[in-house]
Amino acid sequence: MNRYYLLLLILAIVSCKQGSQDMHELQEDTSDDVIVYEEYMGEEPTEPEQTEIYEPVPPVVDPFGNNGVPSDAIVLFDGSNFDNWEMAKDSSEVVWHLNDDGSMTVKDKAGDIQTKQKFGDVQLHIEWRSPAEIQRDGQNRGNSGIFLAGLYEVQVLDNNDNDTYVNGQVASIYKQHVPLAKASVPTGEWNTYDIIYHAPEFNSEGGKTKSGTITVIHNGVLVQDHVEIKGAMTYIGWPKNPPHGKGPLKLQDHGDNSRVSFRNIWIREL
Ligand code: MG
To answer: How far is the CA of 170 from the centre of ligand 1 (A)?
Structure first.
């Protein structure tokens, strides 16, 4: 019996030692990662004025000053013309439908369109609508897409009562990130996307040294929270990382008479 208790005691001591060793290792592992703000390491301020900053002064932006959009935004589409756009395949004139209500609609099998201007980091506002009349299922119902830098797709899809693979559903970063929620309005009504894109960085050999990120707010709901871009959108295969600089904003013709419409597109360079 005494031997039994002795064994238990030894086991307890060993386990305690192991525990304290683990704790020690944990502290050692994390000590280098502790965040220290060097600007706050001096003598502790005692007056409120000592921690007030007056410059640089942020620029003033009138949130509705540019015909209802932020005064420093570039209006890419206001419903009046396709002046800022071209066909993606050959830079020819846009042949998508320009509608009377200030929107545009994909022209089936005409191909993608893209902005003439190229962009790096941006904040983008865009509104889209799937046709009210239901056609087909899955990926073939109201499918389009918004490609940042012409490469990274934020999915547009009529996903209402229409399930599909979740990394290809509405507001997914196509085949890379499932959205945090499905926040679509009823089919046939206008959705808004507010997107923040930070471009990836590449070294002189073309290797990616910093991933890009995308944030998407769908009808006011955060659905992509600063997610890491793994590479260019691919339908089949792994995402690849061709080096690139600024790129156009591209809108997708899915090629199956999706009849998706867009309106009120503006962008702010960051
Ligand atoms: Mg798509």
So the answer is: 9
For residue 32, what pLDDT band results from cuts at 50, 70 and 90? confident
Q: How many CB atoms lie within 10 A of CB 144?
A: 23
Cis amide leading into 48 (omega within 30): no
Domains in the chain, number: 1
Distance 203 CA to ligand 1 centre (A): 30
Q: How far is the CA of 65 from the centre of ligand 1 (A)?
A: 32
Structural domain including 161 reads: 74-269
**85 within domain boundaries:** yes
The alpha carbon of 153 and the centre of ligand 1 are apart by a number of angstroms equal to: 7
Q: What is the pLDDT of residue 52?
A: 97
The mean of the pLDDT values for the chain is 92
Strand partners of residue 123: 196, 268
Q: CATH no. for residue 264?
A: 2.60.120.560
Q: Does residue 87 belong to any structural domain of this protein?
A: yes
How far does the centroid of ligand 1 lie from the alpha carbon of residue 120, in Å?
21
Residue 254 gets which letter from DSSP?
-
SS3 (DSSP) at 182: coil
pTM of the model: 0.87
CA of 139 to the centre of ligand 1 (A): 8
Look at the block and give the residue holding tokens 């962009």. Answer: 119
Q: pLDDT class for 16, splitting at 50, 70, 90?
A: very low
